[in-house]
Amino acid sequence: MQKTIASISYMLAILMVGVGAMGQTSVRNLTVKKDTIFNDKPEEVVVTATRTERKLSNVAVPFTMITQQQIQAAGVVRMQELLQEQTGLFITSGSGTAGMGGGVFGNGVQIQGMSPDYTLILINGEPVIGRQGGTLNLSRFTVANIKKVEVVKGPSSSLYGSEAMGGVINIITEQPQQNKFGASLRMGSYGIVDACANGSFIGKKSSTHVALNSYRFGGSDYNNNLVGYTQDPFTNNTAQVQYNHLLGTKTKLLVFARYSYEQTKNLFDANVNTTAPQKLIDGRIRINDVNINPTIQHRFSNKVNTSLRLYGTMYESIQQLNEENTRNTYYYDYFKQQFFRIENQTNITLPANNTLSLGGGFVREILNTNRYEGERTNNIAYGFVQNEWQPTAQWNIIGGLRYDANEDYASRLSPKLAVRYSPNDRLKFTASYGAGFRAPDYRQLYLSLVNPAAGGYAIYGSNEISTAKLQALQQQGFISTILPRANDLKELKPETSNGFNIGAQYKWSTSTTIDVNLFNNDISNQIIFDIIALRGNGQQVYSYFNVKRSFTRGGELNIQHQFNSHWTITAGYQLLFTGDKDVVAAIDNGKMFGRNQSNNEVYALHRSDYYGLPNRSKHMLNVKLFYQHQPSGWSASVRGIYRSRWGTNDVDGNGIINRTDETANGFLQLNANVSKDFNAHWRVMLGAENLLNYRDAVNIPNVLGINGYIAIHYQLQKRK
Amino acid sequence: MMKQTLGMAVVAIGLMISTTACEKKNDATPAPTVTTDSATLTVSADAVNGSYTYFNLRTKATVTSAQQQTTDWDFGMLFTNLVANATPNGPGTGGVQVVDGTLAGVTAAPESGYVATITDYTQWANYNGTTRTFSPRPGRIIVFRTADNKYVKLEMLAADYGPLAGTPPRPTTIIYRFRYTIQTNGTRNF
Questions:
Q1: How far apart are CA A156 and CA A174, in angstroms?
Q2: Could you say which of A516, B96, B103, B174 is the most buried, measured as most Cβ atoms within 10 Å of its Cβ?
């Protein structure tokens, strides 16, 4: 609390300094170069760092931008394939909260070692919903028709609210800019087919961009002794439309709409772990995903502009599994989530190079599922303020605050402070502090589940259980023992993070850039599930608690070098240390023990025995080499991605990772492609991924073995 | 056998030192009172319909349920429940509790804090719901006071499931493997 007050007063001080300087500057009339997209020199413009359009060189927080050129050069088609090649982004099939081992919730992404639950995914600035077990499956998203992907690393809830605890990934789709039509087809191993078509139509006042994508994955199977797949086959079809309309000279209407339908095939043997005869189960998961986002932008003057954004999104998942012989239903799951938002943001250019952004909005969330009784709703109201002060061209200082008031759990205030200092054109220093939070999710609040199939364990959301209810359950004979942990049952609070980043960027020459960033994130109030009571048959009764505290810290280094007009190399490295603070304290107090892998003897653990949080690699390295020969139209790339050993599952019963048999081996993945432009219209690419054919069906079922592809692109461009 | 000999040697040296310190000379070497041993115990995994298996740590033999109301047993187990020979489980004045440490590291049994029954296995074991494995927690030592007021420290080494039956996999028995040190002279020091 004191920390919060201190940071607020700091922030207010910055706001005041900025405003105080205004009076003077209107007289002095400083000639600071305006930092807008209308600048003479074309430079990449980013929006995610401050929610205003800013030049990349002015961004004061750790930031990665992936451009369309980079996406095309890599030849990848799904979002997780693109992100896994970026420094410090770790694609994991396990969820941070749903157990320590490999998960069944798809491919999520870690940022700065923080779990996929803590990564906010946006499309054009609006949040994507449909998390399963906390993880948002990135293979739902095509990279076709994406203009760029912006990644802000570190807590960013001061602008984005819940889930922006570890960082924000903003997928920015194509805008209609000129009349054009394009199509592409890619076919490859594992039955992968990716087909795209897109077109833009520019009228006098309105313009439209339409994009279609169809993706098919035939499934992978690395264990022939088991029925079913290592990774289930699926198809995904996505259509998206961007419609822009000028309403006068100062007002613009932008409408973005997206629809996606995904179908995954399931097949497995329900008796695989028993001596009982095979019982085949088949079925499918069908997912409907809709986003609609109309925005009105109005420019009152050169100094004041505002935008009113409406957003509605729906995610519906239906899983139907049947017994193959009897066709009786084996499992049925229905999950429908809706999210509606209205938001206004106004940017005001104040004297003395202050840019003030004010905003606020309302959110209504609705959940219907057969997992809980009835319909669940939540309403959130929020407001935010941010001031960016650029006293001279060398400095900019950004302070921000956001307040989120929720119906169903504790409210949250999130501050931010970021500073950039560029003593000259070649050198830039940045330092930032940001707070993040993640609201308790539906299962943590409302779940009420007694699972008869798995022996009768029970899980209750924090709103569904109390010590009084437990006592009643004990009297009914449902439970036998209430554990001391049950005394800690209370209203859940959001999980929170505090992140500090210090970075430097140095342009050695026009061809070489070096970028360094150090980070420290402290995460507290982490929600875990813990046993509150035992049933007579030994089965557990669980509920959720804000107890865990952990840290992620480390550094990131990126180097880019252009040898000549043909060859470019980029290299990125992340060093990462993570841990549960209570585990570290127990180790220091001599209260944490492990069992020796070879002789089974118990020994007291040292800090060096502790691998940290599961699913984290200490070292991550990527090296990418690009070749381009414009006259002949040839280009090629070779990309290597390395991850060191990471923790997977506890074996010796102490609940933490401390032995090598509790980890997965590190591995190197090599991808390469070569392409040729035959003329302005046609382009053909040949490529192969995972050239070393590294596979680990247990720990990385999401990584395919060696696979090749051929892709053909057609582009028709009509010039005005 | 090796360990036993070693234990005897340690005790013998200890006694020599203590006797020297007391400046009293005894011609006869007294019998050792501390012994370390290991054992295996198969118990019912059916907490609802099964019955307890009672074990005597000195004879390393199980005791039939008919002998429950005797002091012939030191502890009993059913599924993951642990009982000591004390009211209401038996006629003795026993007790049980769980402490932190390695088997060698626990050099004295606590003076107080004993209970008759532990149904909360989370004190000494972990159940991993994802992998469905049940394993003893390393660094947790179960300390017993026996029916006749002797002290025992016990380390669970493994809990193996017996034959699986039915769907989902559910064991009918659990085989516990453990090692223990018993002090028969009535003191709490091992």
A1: 25
A2: B96
Neighbour count for residue A236 (Cβ, 10 Å): 22
Residues B150 and B60 in one domain: yes
Four-CA torsion A403, A549, A61, A386, nearest 10 degrees: 10
Domain membership flag for residue B188: no
Are the Cβ atoms of B79 and A538 closer than 8 angstroms?
yes
- Residues B94, B58 share a domain: yes
- Does B62 lie in the same domain as B7? no
Which chain A residues are within 8 Å of B168, Cβ to Cβ?
Answer: 273-274, 453-455
Minimal C-alpha gap between A588 and chain B (Å): 14
Distance, CA of A548 to CA of A529 (rounded, Å):
10
A298-343 pLDDT, tens digit per residue, is 999 999 999 999 999 999 999 999 999 899 999 899 999 999 999 9
B10 shares its domain with B95: no
Range(s) of the domain holding residue B67: 33-183
Same-domain check for residues B55 and B14? no
Shared domain for B113 and B175, answered yes or no, is yes
Instruction: Kindly report, residue by residue over A422-450, the tens digit of the pLDDT.
Output: 999 899 999 999 999 998 888 888 888 88
Nearest CA in chain A to B79: A538
In a domain, residue B190? The reply is no
What is the value of pTM for the model shown? Answer: 0.85
Task: Copy the structure tokens of residue A277.
Answer: 């005869």
Q: pLDDT tier at A22 (50, 70, 90 boundaries)?
A: very low
The list of chain B residues with pLDDT below 70 reads: 1-30, 129-132, 162-170
Q: Give a yes or no: residue B59 inside a domain.
A: yes
**How many structural domains is chain B composed of?**
2
Q: Give the other-Cβ count within 10 Å of B186's Cβ.
A: 10
Does residue B175 form part of some domain?
yes
For residues A457 and A541, is the Cβ–Cβ distance under 8 A?
A: yes
Rounded to two decimals, the ipTM of the complex is 0.74
